[in-house]
Write a structure and sequence with these properties.
Blueprint: H1 9-19, E1 21-23, H2 58-68, E2 72-78, E3 81-86, H3 90-98, H4 103-108, H5 114-124, H6 131-138, H7 145-157, E4 161-170, E5 176-186, H8 187-191, H9 193-200, H10 204-218, H11 224-232
Antiparallel strand pairs: 1-3, 2-3, 4-5
């Protein structure tokens, strides 16, 4: 499979649609559409990190896809780091990573931690929320910071929740202030039920094999052990 050179955000979205998934960041451990990172970008490179330019700065693209595309998800889904999965391939990862189990089934099977259950219950009962609100509603104290962070990564990795945009704090007068914050929601709220109905029709091993075959098309040199981890989460 041939991936064309990426010069801007439009190119990135087009090539991501072809590939189906990609790690975020330069190079990646298995496959990334962006071939160099901030510290290794060549002189005169068509895309440049951390310039703030929404068309040519990949750092901006992780949120642009969420606001401008309806067929791309972005979250910490590969090796505990950010990554993109398209609508076409999301059911395959759901089937491969959790055998299409619901959250309740996974929890009762001992596959999900108690802190993750608290986070998921908050997001299941609310619209998109920033981490500070998830912590507050979930009753997470300061001493539980590490447990909360692990739960957030765990749920993203298992595709139970995803990043769904960004927002800023609102003052009492209704004005926005502060830095943008990532917003989280359940994956079902992000995609709708059809994605998970499709996942339920897939055999876990067949789904994993399909992802593996696509990885081999994109990067034949990817180490087998890393590919397995890429698929299983």
């Amino acid at each position: 499979m041939t991936i064309s050179e990426i010069y801007n955000f439009e190119d990135f979205c087009r090539e991501l649609g072809t590939a189906g998934f990609s790690e975020f960041g330069g190079g990646g451990e298995v496959f990334s559409l962006i071939r160099y990172g901030w510290g290794s970008q060549p002189y005169g490179a068509p895309i440049r990190w951390h310039t703030g330019d929404p068309d040519t700065d990949p750092w901006q693209w992780r949120l642009r896809v969420l606001s401008e595309c309806d067929d791309i998800a972005y979250a910490k889904v590969f090796f505990g780091k950010g990554g993109f999965i398209t609508r076409e391939w999301y059911p395959y990862f759901v089937a491969a990573r959790r055998d299409s189990r619901t959250f309740d089934e996974s929890y009762y099977d001992g596959l999900v931690s108690r802190p993750a259950k608290r986070v998921f219950e908050v997001l299941s009962s609310n619209a998109a929320l920033p981490t500070r609100e998830i912590k507050r509603l979930g009753g997470f104290g300061r001493e539980e910071r590490s447990a909360f962070d692990r739960a957030l990564r765990e749920l993203q990795n298992m595709l139970f929740i995803t990043i769904c945009g960004s927002g800023r704090k609102i003052s009492g007068a209704g004005d926005e202030y502060g830095w943008d914050e990532m917003l989280y929601c359940t994956s079902e709220a992000f995609w709708g039920a059809d994605v998970f109905a499709e996942a339920a029709e897939l055999d876990r091993d067949d789904a994993a094999r399909a992802i593996q075959d696509r990885v081999r098309e994109l990067n034949p040199a990817a180490p087998a052990a890393r590919v397995r981890r890429f698929i299983s989460g």
